[in-house]
Amino acid sequence: MTKYSFITLILGLLLGAIAPVIAEDDAADGNSGSFYIPEAQRRFSEAQGCVEPTDEMRANHMEYILDQRDATVHEGIRTKQYSLVECINCHVSDAPDAPRYESEKHFCNSCHTYASVSIDCFQCHADRPVKTSRFNSRPRIDSHRAGDINTTMPEQLNVSANEGTGNE
Amino acid sequence: MSEESNIDIYRRRFLSGTASAAAGLAVAPGVMLTEVANARPADQAVTSEVRWGMLIDTNKCDNGCNDCVSACNEEHNLGGFDRPATDAQWIRTVTLKDKQTGNVQTLPLLCQHCEHPPCVDVCPTGASFKREDGIVLVDKHICIGCRYCMMACPYKARSFIHEKLQDQMPYSPRGKGTVESCTFCVHRVDEGITPACVEACTAEDHNAMTFGDMNDPDSEISQQLERYSSRQIRADLDLNTGVRYRGI
Predict the structure, then answer these.
(1) Contact with chain A for residue B42, Cβ under 8 A
(2) Which of A147, B34, B115, B192 has a 20 to 30 A CA-CA distance from B44?
């Protein structure tokens, strides 16, 4: 019996020593410790940080981007809600020294490094927000068929710009 | 050989004819297709109601003028590596000299956005494709960089990216190991705005380039094409190019 109680005591001590370490790991899931998620530049709406609930985006953002990619390239559908360009516009600062994709401080790479995922999006796509070209007098095509295409952002996107993190 | 390719074209026309007839039957009675064409919202797919085209009047091209080329390079950030043999080139100026008379002419040459594009025919992965509105593109997500399309193109319009790139324009993704060519500035056209080369040419008051919908009889390009004679380069190939030239 004494043997068993001794083993229990040792186990208890070991667990007591390990528990704070586990707790620290849990705390690191937020913006503390070595795992750092940069803040978004604005919120999608007052109710919601990102274009879908944050949990959904964390799990399935790649599916949204993949669907949008085919629609845009092949069918010319240019809605902005799931566009990769808009992800970058929101999640990466337009400061000249904003981190590039290779940096762990880049929004996408901060998590991909943690999850050990390597992606090739940014071999081709810009990893910084929109730049405009010099050719922006934007002359309309004369054809009446070209029409006026509404590519403005959803209104709620601008409601609370530069407020909140969009990460909660 | 030419007979064979004619047969191919007849087949294509027959097949597309039957397809559009089937589509016509599928439309519910009373629905007006013409109304749909007036404006295309951002969430609607492009349709073959529109065919984008460009008319280039080479008589208005100044010898030595390079504005369209530099506009393209700037719009798409095609900065090269000072290696002219391999640097990307979406539009280039070609000089023609008549050996008998000594007359020299320059003209811009870009992807001709063919109705029957050879690059699409040969692509092994389906990366090279033609949009419903006639714009020929490369889906770089699918491109494996085999460069078969570059060999198939009679206009030498495509480039291959040999080196790692950085600072691409957000609207114009480009990357090592893929083939690319003129997109007719599809990101601008989708917003109803003319391509950058046309904007630059017009801004300099050369007005040598006209861009518009060749299916719309009222568009400027259709009216000019109707009024004046124009040519396709290598019209003998029956590709029905989307870029037409006057004065050559």
Answers:
(1) yes
(2) B115
Give B99→chain A minimum CA distance, Å.
38
Subunit contact B37:A76, Cβ cutoff 8 A: no
Domain B43-246 bears CATH identifier 3.30.70.20: yes
CB proximity A144 to B under 8 Å: yes
Mutate to test the interface with A, among B123, B193, B207, B215 (most CBs of A within 10 A): B193
User: Rounded to a whole number, what is the distance in Å from the CA of A120 to chain B's nearest CA?
Assistant: 10
Tell me, yes or no, if B35 comes closer than 8 A to chain A by beta carbon: no
Establish if A102 touches chain B: CB-CB under 8 angstroms: no
**B213, B53 Cβ separation under 8 angstroms:** yes
How many residue contacts between A and B have a Cβ separation below 8 Å?
A: 136
Mean pLDDT (10-residue bins), chain A, 168 residues: 61 54 44 68 83 92 94 94 92 88 91 91 90 78 51 40 40
**CB contact set of B25 (below 8 Å; sequence gap of 6+):** none
Q: What is the ipTM of this complex?
A: 0.79
Q: Domain limits of chain A?
A: 31-130
Structure tokens at A117: 């995922």
Read off the pLDDT of residues B28-45 as tens digits, 9 standing for 90 and up.
Answer: 444 444 433 345 888 899
Structure tokens at A160: 């609370």
Interchain CB distance below 8 Å, A140 and B192: yes
Distances from the Cα of B207 to the Cα of B59, B131, B142, B188, B201, angstroms:
10, 27, 37, 19, 6
Q: How many residues comprise chain B?
A: 248
Non-local (6+) Cβ contacts of B34 within 8 A are none
Give the distance from residue A111's alpha carbon to the nearest chain B alpha carbon, in angstroms.
22
DSSP A50: S
Smallest Cβ–Cβ distance between A141 and the set B131, B193, B200 belongs to B193
Nearest to A145 among B50, B139, B171 (CB): B50
